[in-house]
Amino acid sequence: VTVPVTLHGARGLLGMDLAVSYAADVLTPVGVEGNNLAQGRTLVANTSEPGVIRLGLFGADDLDREGRLFEITFQVIGEAGEESLLHIIEASINEGAIPVASRPGRVRVR
After folding, report:
1. Beta partners for residue 63, in sequence order
2. 3-state DSSP assignment of residue 91
3. pLDDT at 96
């Protein structure tokens, strides 16, 4: 399953650090891919800690658009009826210069 991470209202972004939590008994991360907004920037993902994905994104030019920033792909390992909430547990844009608000996501196994 692929989960998009979108960006709204953060024009001027130069760098971002993000940590996303998930249920490690339901999902296993297999990849993170940058979308059009991430082009020309460096995207680094650390998936070594079960239950948390840490992401860093940076570039030389500020971002002047909104939309889908990247996608996280998970392998579903849970049983039917189980679910994983996805929460942004840490976030910093331009070292705190741009405020961050987030909405949780959810993956339900069918």
Report:
1. 13
2. strand
3. 95
What letter does residue 79 receive in the DSSP assignment?
A: P
Scanning the structure block, which residue is given the tokens 């002047």?
64
Q: What tokens appear for 60 in the block? A: 């030389």
**65, pLDDT greater than 90:** no
pTM for this prediction: 0.92
For the chain, the average pLDDT equals: 95
d(CA 4, CA 71) in angstroms, rounded, equals 4
Place of tokens 């049983």: 79
Q: How many CA atoms lie within 13 A of 89 on its CB side?
A: 10
Residue type, 70: F
Distance CA 7, CA 54 (A): 17
**Alpha-carbon span 7 to 4, nearest angstrom:** 10
Distance from C-alpha of 10 to C-alpha of 98, rounded to nearest angstrom: 7
